[in-house]
Structures are given as C-alpha cells and as structure tokens.
From TrEMBL:
FMN binds at D57, T101, S240. Pfam families: Bac_luciferase. The keyword Chloroplast does not apply. This is FMNH2-utilizing oxygenase. SUPFAM superfamilies: Bacterial luciferase-like. Keywords: Flavoprotein, FMN, Monooxygenase, Oxidoreductase.
Length: 402
C-alpha cells in the first residue's frame, strides 16, 4: 500500500444537507422523527465500516437566514435531540463511532459530561461529542439568561464582534475542560463491587474537580463512573483561527472546510502551527475535511439532480463546506488529492438522505478500497482506538501516584 489509509465519517442531518432534500428523498418527509430511520442510516454506515457518524443539532429551528426564523414553509423544520438519537442507535450498532452535537453556550457542562459518558457506556466505548458554540440571538432567546446581539456576516471583523466570538469560544473551552475533568473524576478502579465486604466504591478514588472560572463553578465528582474510553472523542468544526486554536487546546478531531488541495494544505499547516503555539500535548489533531456530496451514476445525472434541488429551493445552494456533485469515481480522485495535501480523512455530508449515503457506502467506499485507501473491516475496540488515539489515564490517578 503506497499511501496511508484515510479516516471516513458521515454527517447526518435531517433528510440531507440540501434544504430541498425532503422533496426528493426516498425516506419520506416524516422519517427523521422516527427511530427506524436513524437506525437504518447508522446500519448502512456501519456496513461500509465508516469510522464514525456525526448527528447535527441546534437550539433553534433550521433557517436560511444567519439568525432567526425565515418564515419559509417549504423546507424541513424541526429535529430530534442528537444525544438521544445516538443513545437509541447505540445498542443497534457494534463498531461505528457515534458523535452527537450539543451547544456549550446554553447547556451546563455537568449535564453534557453525564450524557456523553452514558453514551460511551451504552455503546461500549464508541461515543464522541461535538461541542458547538451558539452565537445566534434566536437561540439565546429560548433561555432568557443572556443577551447575544445579532451577528452581521458582513461585519465579523469589527472589534465588538471579535470580542463576542472570543468570549463564546473561551466559554466553550472552559466547558470542555470541565467535561473532561468530570470524565476523569472517577478513577478506573473506583468501583470495588465487593458484596462480601459491602464496599461498592473506594471513595478515595472519586475526586472533586473544583473548577472555578469566569462562566462555571463546578465541584464534582461526576455521577457517572469512568467510561470505557476514559475520555470520549471530542470533535470540533472549525473554519478560522479562533476555532482552530479552540480545537488545538481541547479536541481530538477537527473538521475543516477547504476549497481545494492547496487550501487544504494551508489549513493543515495552520493547525499544526497552532498546536505548537498552544503547547498541545498528546497526539496531534486528526484533521478531517468536510464535503457536501451529491452523487450519481454519471456527471450529467448528478448535475441534473443538483439543478432540480436548487430549483425546488429557489436558489443555488451554498454551504460552509464545498459541494461536490459527480460520480463516486470522480469523488475518489478528489479525495486522493486532498488526502495527499495532508488531511487525515473526510467527513462527508450527504446532500439527500438516504440516497447519497448509499452512494457513499455502496460505490465510493468500494472504489476507495480498490485504491488501497480504506480498510475492509473494523479492527475491533473503541472509537479512540479506531482513530489511533490511546486511552488516557485519569488525571487524578496520575496526580495521586506522582
């Protein structure tokens, strides 16, 4: 094999990433509100031995506007909770990583830590977590605890906006730090479970996290014993320098949005430089490039399907990630170029579900295997192991033996 095999993930959102996907999906408009739909998607992804799937979530309704409802009634609106979807499909899968999205801005880190640790127990060590900053005024309005001004996309470089974004990511950083400390607050051998002596836990192996910061004051310990991975995988979506630094300090995986191989190489270079700047310890970030994909048997059919979706939407679809439309073979060529530019793998966003997911699993994956770029099965073990990440010891156990 001449090239290192790549990591491959899929991002699931509603009936697909194109806003008109529900009009053409084979699943039916009500499918995303059923457990059967999500179980089928996860099963399809696992049959193709994908590393992980992510589940999108937000605290406001989908909208074509940057902030607040758009008043449209011709697009999918409403979603189920991502963590609960992951918990539902965990017992129905055996190998694939499950990575739900949650907001760090309006959710207490104690609750987040217990939810993801519980998912790691239920899945046997396959849980991940994508912490997300909620920068929208509409989301803040659901809670009434803080004011967030409407962000103007044309004025993102203004000092007030930069301060707000910096504060939101600093808060998210503290939230992830609290979550990670809580995951460590039970040592691996804290549970004795000795019926004869009547000792269920060793209280000396449960630890207060005693975190005090600008946004949180959390004592601990967690109510959930240390999970199979010790530290479930933390994955971050990042588009620029501030979230790159956030990922370098707090994440295991970063999803990025390059536009071409040169841009991909530049992003990877910037991330590696940021890792040095922040003094990252442990393994480097796994860098996965995001792509919205619309696949068909021929380039012409793919173009026609995209044109049909855009026509139903009433505008040409654009996204934070590049959109690829073409054949699975053409996509393989693109992935090879970007992989050579330095990314460790890809998170593909199917334009229409389940249609483009099955094109990924049944056409793209076999083509990647033919090129020696993707494995034919799961090696077994946890999501951390699948990504080449070691299982860390609890920081409190390390401190106690230092």
């Amino acid at each position: 094999m001449t090239e290192k095999t790549l990591h491959l993930a899929v991002a699931l959102d509603g009936l697909g990433w194109h806003p008109a996907a529900w009009r053409l999906s084979r699943a039916g408009a009500s499918a995303p509100l059923t457990a059967r739909y999500w179980a089928a998607l996860a099963g399809e992804a696992e049959k193709a031995t994908l590393d992980l799937l992510t589940i999108e979530d937000s605290l406001d309704l989908q909208s074509s506007r940057p902030d607040g409802p758009d008043g449209r009634a011709d697009e999918l609106r409403g979603r189920l909770d991502a963590v609960q979807i992951a918990a539902q499909i965990a017992p129905l899968t055996r190998h694939i990583g499950l990575v739900p999205t949650t907001s760090t801005t309006h959710t207490e880190p104690f609750h987040l830590s217990t939810a993801v640790a519980t998912l790691d127990h239920i899945s046997g060590g396959r849980a991940g977590w994508r912490p997300r900053v909620s920068a929208r005024r509409a989301e803040a309005g659901h809670f009434g605890r803080r004011e967030i001004p409407v962000l103007d996309p044309a004025r993102l470089d203004e000092p007030e906006t930069l301060r707000l974004v910096g504060d939101l990511f600093a808060e998210a950083g503290d939230a992830v730090e609290v979550v990670r400390r809580l995951w460590d607050s039970w040592q691996d051998d804290a549970e004795i479970r000795d019926v004869a002596t009547g000792r269920f836990v060793d209280r000396d192996r449960l630890h207060y996290v005693d975190f005090t910061g600008r946004w949180f004051s959390v004592k601990g310990p967690s109510i959930v014993p240390r999970s199979p991975q010790g530290q479930p995988v933390v994955a971050v979506l990042a588009h620029s320098s501030v979230p790159y630094a956030f990922a370098a300090r707090h994440a295991d995986v970063v999803f990025v949005t390059p536009t071409d191989p040169g841009h991909a190489a530049a992003i990877v270079g910037e991330i590696r430089a940021v890792e040095e700047t922040v003094g990252r310890g442990g393994p480097p970030l796994r860098v996965l490039a995001d792509l919205v994909v619309l696949l068909d048997e021929t380039p012409t059919l793919a173009r026609r399907r995209r044109a049909r979706l855009d026509d139903l939407h009433g505008a040409r679809f654009t996204s934070d990630a590049s959109l690829f439309s073409g054949t699975p073979g053409q996509l393989v060529d693109l992935l090879v170029e970007w992989h050579r530019a330095g990314v460790d793998g890809f998170r593909l966003r199917p334009a229409v579900l389940p249609d483009d997911l099955t094109a990924i699993t049944r056409a793209l994956v076999p083509a990647l295997r033919e090129r020696g770029l993707f494995r034919a099965g799961y090696p077994g073990g946890t999501l951390r192991g699948l990504l080449g990440l070691t299982r860390p010891a609890s920081r409190y156990a390390v401190a106690a033996t230092a």
